[in-house]
Amino acid sequence: MNVSCDYAAIPAALREHDQWVAWKPVRREGKPTKVPVNVRNSKQAKTDDPATWATLEEAIPYARRHQCGVGYVFAAGDPFAGVDLDDCLDPATGALADWAAFVVWLLDGYTEVSPSGRGVKVIVRGALPPGRRGWGGNGLYESHRYFTITGQRLPASPPDIPDRAEQIAQLHRLLFPPARPAPPVRHIPAPLSLTDDEVIARAGEAANGAKFRALWAGDSSAYGSQSEADAALVSLLRFWVGDDEARIDAIFRRSGLCRGKWEERADYRRRTIALAADGAVYEPRSREPLLLPALATPRRRRWAPRFSRMVAS
User: Fold this and answer.
1) Smaller CB count within 10 Å for the chain: N or C?
2) Closest to 53 (Cα-Cα) out of 24, 19, 15, 80
3) Vertex 254, ends 253 and 256: CA angle to 5°?
């Protein structure tokens, strides 16, 4: 756990509910995970069994003794909903990725840094509409889920849990819009018979070749983040090789954008390639951000990001 817990800063609204657990880091199948713990008997807690939960006053001493963290369990009986945003915060600069800044700005709820220092969690009062909950490794929750709680609040966010029923419903609609009749499928002929070298050469000579050449050289200056530049190059490669994930990966590794995150994080590679398959293409910052007029209010302008689009994967 990289981020320490400021117990005194935990919102009073959460303290009132006896829905607390501790958590301990455990590696499962080579991946780190956080297992909820019943502080009364040190056994694994369950998010659907209130008998395994406790008060915050019980959880804090347990966490201190065992050098672990505390967590809040969302249940059907409480008024809260939470949004878990993963791998979106630069721990060195404190900067949020544009897509995460948009969510934080829209909800304007209690927002704190996750234990890893690389994600944030937003908690508001409000109910989620029925339907999907997860997108791209992130999620919206209101029951049968627990959040690690650090009390390390982002300074511009409210210190307690505000009512954001309208905003949480709006975020759900943006992420998971109602189904529409599918448009005719537009097949883009991909010259799959080309070698990788031929793909690189043709992409550099195409109408958007300047964009490709800059990305291929590792220039991400036209984009809000390195991740957006990665997604843009993957989208260009997909045009030439189709949905061949392995081949996209292999060609991308030859580019100047390839870095440790791409080589070591299989989940990041899959997510970036999957977004490109859904048609998500990040555009340079010179383009106007896709903000709904109703959201661009002076009261919350401080969170207004420059971003292209949010896509549920």
Assistant:
1) C
2) 19
3) 95
Quote the tokens at residue 230.
Answer: 């990665």
The first and second tokens of residue 259, run together, are 């870095």
Name the burial class of residue 197, with classes exposed (0-12), middle (13-18) and buried (19+) by CB atoms within 10 angstroms of its CB: exposed
- Token pair of 283 as six digits: 């555009």
Is residue 271's pLDDT more than 90?
Answer: no
Domains and CATH numbers, the chain: 7-175 (3.90.920), 196-277 (no CATH)
- Strand order from edge to edge, sheet including 110-113: 110-113, 120-125, 80-85, 138-141, 134-135
* 167 has a pLDDT exceeding 50: yes
Cα–Cα distance measured from residue 284 to residue 255, given in angstroms and rounded to the nearest whole number: 19
Among 221, 223, 250, which residue's Cα sits nearest to residue 234?
Answer: 250
Residue 110 has a pLDDT of 98
133-156: average pLDDT: 93
Alpha-carbon distance 138 to 85, whole Å?
Answer: 5
Instruction: Using pLDDT thresholds of 50, 70 and 90, give the confidence band for residue 214.
Output: very high
CA atoms within a 13 Å half-sphere pointing along the CA-CB vector of 236:
28
Distance CA 305, CA 290 (A): 10
